[in-house]
Amino acid sequence: MREAPTEVVSVRVRRELKEEARALGINLREVVERAIEEEVRRVKREKFRRLLGEALEAMDVSVEEWVRAVEGDRAER
After folding, report:
1. Is residue 28 within 8 Å of 18, Cβ to Cβ?
2. Residues 63, 56: contact at Cβ < 8 Å?
3. SS (H, E, C) 9-76
4. Which of 26, 32, 44, 59 lies in disulfide reach of 21, CB 3.0 to 4.6 Å?
5. For 14-24, b where at least 16 C-beta lie within 10 A, e where not — what string?
6. Which residue, among 44, 43, 24, 40, has the nearest Cα to 32 in the 3D structure?
7. How far is CA 23 from CA 17, 32, 43, 70, in A?
8. Alpha carbon distances (Å) from 24 to 13, 42, 52
9. Rounded to two decimals, what is the model's pTM?
10. Cβ neighbours around 32 below 10 Å, total
């Protein structure tokens, strides 16, 4: 299996922090990648919530009505 292409990200951190992380065996690349993934998920969720809220507002439908409609559709399957 082929690895996904990567990019270099450069960030400055306090020397003491980097040295302590290294001494503790912390893989900084993994920590940074995981933090970026989590932030991307958080921002996507927030964007989705905002867009959903705007759509429901435009349709004059409450969140509760929308949830009931989705649940009803799932129950029919």
Report:
1. yes
2. yes
3. CCCCCCHHHHHHHHHCCCCHHHHHHHHHHHHHHHHHHHHHHHHHHHHHHHHCCCHHHHHHHHHHHHHH
4. 26
5. eeeeeeeeeee
6. 40
7. 10, 17, 33, 51
8. 16, 28, 43
9. 0.69
10. 13
Check residue 1 and give its pLDDT: 75
The per-residue pLDDT for range 10-31, each reduced to its tens digit, is: 999 999 999 999 999 999 999 9
Domain ranges of the chain: 15-76
Tokens of 58: 């435009």
Contact 36, 15 (CB under 8 A): no
Question: What angle is formed at CA 47 by the lines to CA 41 and CA 48, rounded to 5 degrees?
Answer: 90
- Give residues with Cβ within 8 angstroms of 53, minimum separation 6: 63
